[in-house]
TrEMBL record:
The chain crosses the membrane at residues 16-34, 128-154, 160-177, 184-200. Keywords: Cell membrane, Membrane, Transmembrane, Transmembrane helix, Transport. Belongs to the AzlC family. InterPro entries: Brnchd-chn_aa_trnsp_permease. It is found in: Cell membrane. It is a multi-pass membrane protein. It comes from Halalkaliarchaeum desulfuricum. Its main location: membrane. This is Branched-chain amino acid transport protein AzlC.
Length: 226
């Protein structure tokens, strides 16, 4: 493994840590607010490792929604990883499955974007080393940030709950993503549906909103190409 490419991956990912750390802190706090024990909160972060999906699931868990609803919602939010995987897979086709599996586990939006850009720009890059530098460092920072958030959340008195931080983070993620007509339409429609369906039993409103938003976004994108 090329150590220089490994260091390059860490170096390229490091500017992103400024955004990842506060996001991870909020996820840790949200986990405690949702009623998870510190061990459960950290275990969820390690096993799931999916920021927006974790927040959505924690929000539903905090509202006592059925576990199945929380899981399905998280899966729908993470469907984009299927496209990322299909796109980046050719770069790791020569590796064995026992190596590919851990690589898929640490796949994130940032790891995908940085890696495919590097592979396209510099063909002689040690792909495994660079990807691990990016994805591995992001994973480590995320876990440390989540643990810190759990510690902070566990030390905050119930009357000073920090649940307001979750919608603020979602807004911070949503606004920059609405950069074209499909994503803007998806975001607006999903928001309207989520508010309208707030009273749906078992907190299914969020799941319905996510599905409708995705469908609308895809429809607008297809309409633009016709």
């Amino acid at each position: 493994m090329d150590r220089e490419d490994l260091r390059a991956g860490v170096r390229d990912a490091s500017p992103l840590f400024l955004g990842i750390v506060p996001f991870a802190l909020v996820v840790g706090v949200a986990a405690v607010e949702a009623g998870l024990t510190p061990v459960q909160a950290v275990a969820m972060s390690v096993i799931v490792f999916a920021g927006a999906a974790q927040l959505a699931a924690l929000e539903l868990i905090g509202e006592t929604a059925p576990l199945s609803v929380a899981v399905v919602t998280a899966v729908i939010i993470n469907l984009r990883m299927v496209m990322y995987s299909a796109s980046i897979a050719p770069h790791f086709r020569s590796f064995r499955r026992r190596i590919q599996a851990p690589l898929s586990y640490v796949l994130t939006d940032q790891a995908y974007a940085l890696s495919v850009a590097r592979f396209a720009r510099e063909g002689n890059t040690d792909r495994l080393a660079y990807y691990l530098g990016v994805a591995g460092s992001i994973w480590l920072v995320w876990q440390v940030g989540t643990v810190a958030g759990v510690v902070v959340g566990a030390g905050v008195p119930p009357e000073l709950g920090l649940s307001f931080a979750v919608p603020l983070v979602f807004l911070a993620l949503l606004v920059p993503a609405m950069k074209d007509r499909p994503t803007t339409a998806a975001g607006i429609v999903a928001a309207v549906v989520a508010v309208a369906a707030a009273g749906v039993p078992y907190n299914l409103g969020l799941l319905v909103a996510a599905v409708v938003g995705i469908v609308v976004g895809l429809a607008v994108e297809v309409g633009e190409k016709v």
